[in-house]
Design goal:
Layout: H1 2-28, E1 40-43, E2 46-49, H2 50-54, H3 60-69, H4 73-79, H5 84-105, H6 112-122, H7 128-141
Antiparallel strand pairs: 1-2
Length: 146
Amino acid sequence: MKRILYVLIIVTLCTLAVVGFLVALSSFRDTTPRPLADETFMIHGQPTTCSMLFGQACDYSLQSEYNRWGNELESFIESSPLGSYATEIGFAASAKLSLQACGLARTAGKTALEFETLARREHPEATSPQLFPFWNRTRQGLCPQP
């Protein structure tokens, strides 16, 4: 009878130790990404951050893309034949679409279809032929695949 009691106590203590360890481990795992630095690049002769360019705080993905490719953004947008839709929506919107295309192109399994879905959240009027140059030219010029 004493042995059974000792075994139960040991099992209970071991269980509590494992549960305590798992709770401590999960508290160390922070699922929210660390904030990214808001890098500054010269755009149209002005030092510009992601939030300045787009007029609002950038989410983690857009900030990451801006930090990675923002240095080449102005020359890419100004020199790439992105079509009349790019002229219509302006520099900032074209830059955002290009950065989003870079982000998706670097994600395994993502295609132009996912890019169109993402782009239409802010540009529901855009047609596939208007969006395709952003997907195609961006992957060739701003963020070419290795």
